[in-house]
Amino acid sequence: TPPLDVAALREEFPILAREVHGKPLVYLDNAATSQTPRRVIAAFEEYYGRYNANIHRGLHTLADEATAAFEGTRETVRSFLNAGDSREIIFTRGTTEAINLVANAWGRANLRPGDEVLVSRMEHHSNIVPWQLLASQLGIVVKVIPVDARGVLDLDAYRGLFSERTRLVAVNHVSNAFGTINPVREMAAIAHEHDALILVDGAQAAPHQAVDVRDLDADFYAFSGHKVYGPTGVGVLYGKAALLEAMPPWQGGGEMIQTVSFEAPTTFAAIPHKFEAGTPAIAEVIALGEALRWIEGVGLEAIGAWEGQLLDAATQRVSRIDGLRLLGTAPHKASVLSFVVDGAHAQDIGLLIDQLGVAIRTGHHCAQPLLAQFGVDATCRASFAAYNTLEEVEVFAAALERVIGMVR
Ligand code: PMP
C-alpha cells in the first residue's frame, strides 16, 4: 500500500484531470516543473483579490497584510530548511538567480586570480556557467569533480582536487539529469577541512527529501519554487548569516539600502533585505509558502518513499524493453529515470509519446558535460512526483513500447 493517499492528493491538482490529444494526461516531467495544488493557485486569487500592495514601505492596511504574508513565507522557508535564522533566507527568481547571486556577491569580493572552484561534471548549466563567467572575468580556475560509469561522484578524486587555492565547492544535492543523490554532508565536511565553502544546488532535492541545512553544514543552499509544487518566478538562497553579512550587495535599488546620498556613501540594509533589491515577486513568494506548507502537510518522508516505489517500478518495467539503456544507475537516486533507446531518437520518442498523453522530457537537460561523458547528446527523462501512480507508470511504459515500435 502506498504511504500516502494518492487518489485524494490528486484531487487537489486540477491540471491532473485534463486531457492531452484526447488522452488522460500522464505528467512525468516533474523534474522540470511540478504541478500546483489548488491552495497554491488560491493564494494568487486571495492576494490579488484582497491585499495586493507593495511590501515593507507602505503604512496602510493592505501593505501591512502583504508584508506580513511575505515575511511569513520567509519563516516557513526557514523552518522547511531548518535554518537557524530567517535572516538567512533570501528570495530570488529561482535557483539560477540564487547561484548567480553567490557568484557575483561572494565570488567577486572573495576570489582572486588563480583561486579554485570545484564543480561536478553532473551540474546543471546554472551551476557551471556562472563559475565559467568568473573564470573569464576574474581569472579563477574551475576544476571538475569526475563522475563514474554509474553516474556517481568520485569522492577520492574529489579529495584529490583540493589545493591551498580551493575556495568553494559547487555541487548539486540531486542530479536533474540522472537522479543521483550526492553525499553533500560528507562533501561539506571535506570542503571545510580545506577551509573551502560549499554551495549546494538543491533544486532537485527539496521536492523529494527533508533538507536540514545545519545538519548538512551547507554554507549556501538554493532551490526553486516551481519544482516544489509552487509557482515559477521565485526561489530561495539560504546562506549562513555571517557569510551574508560580510558579502557586498549584488543588485542595487530600492529596498536594499539604509540611506542613499550623493554627499556621503550610500549605506545598505541589513540581511536579508540587502540582497532583495526592487519589488520582489510578492504573490509568488506568498504562494511558495502555501506550497511548502502543503508539502509539510503530506510529509516529505511519505513523498520520498512513494516516489521511490514509482521509480523502482518504472526502472524494472522499462528495463524489459529491448535496446533501452538506462543512464544513471547510482544506488541512491531520487525521482528521475533517464534513458536512451537504440535506433530511436529521444526527440522522436518525446513527440510521439506526447500524442499518447504522456509528458516526459527529452534533450540535454541543461547537463551537456554529463551527457557528453556518456556519449549522448539527449536522453528521455521521466520524473515522478507525489501525485503519480503505478497505473501511470504502466501507461507510460506501454506507450513507450508502442512509440519505439513506430520509429524503429
Ligand atoms: N539546478 C538543477 C539541478 C535544476 O534541476 C534546475 C532546473 N532544471 C536548476 C538548477 C535551475 O533552476 P531554475 O531554472 O528554476 O532557476
Spell out which ligands are present. 4'-deoxy-4'-aminopyridoxal-5'-phosphate
Uncertain segments = none
> What fraction, in percent, of the residue positions are helical?
40-55%
Please state the average pLDDT score: 97
Enzyme class: transferase
GO molecular function: cysteine desulfurase activity; lyase activity; pyridoxal phosphate binding
Organism: Franzmannia pantelleriensis
Cofactor: pyridoxal 5'-phosphate
Report on this model:
It is a single chain. The chain has 408 residues and is α/β, with parallel strands linked by helices. Helices cover 40% and strands 16% of the residues. A seven-stranded mixed beta sheet has the order 4-10-9-8-7-5-6, sandwiched between helices. A four-stranded antiparallel beta sheet has the order 13-14-17-16, covered by helices on one side. A two-stranded antiparallel ribbon has the order 1-2. Helix 2 packs antiparallel against helix 10 and helix 4 packs parallel to helix 5. The two termini are 37 Å apart. It binds 4'-deoxy-4'-aminopyridoxal-5'-phosphate. 4'-deoxy-4'-aminopyridoxal-5'-phosphate binds next to helix 4. It catalyses: (sulfur carrier)-H + L-cysteine = (sulfur carrier)-SH + L-alanine. This is cysteine desulfurase. Belongs to the class-V pyridoxal-phosphate-dependent aminotransferase family. Csd subfamily.
Features:
408 residues, alpha/beta, seven-stranded mixed sheet, four-stranded antiparallel sheet, 17 strands, globular, binds 4'-deoxy-4'-aminopyridoxal-5'-phosphate
Summarize the structure.
Its cofactor is pyridoxal 5'-phosphate. The chain is of the alpha/beta class.
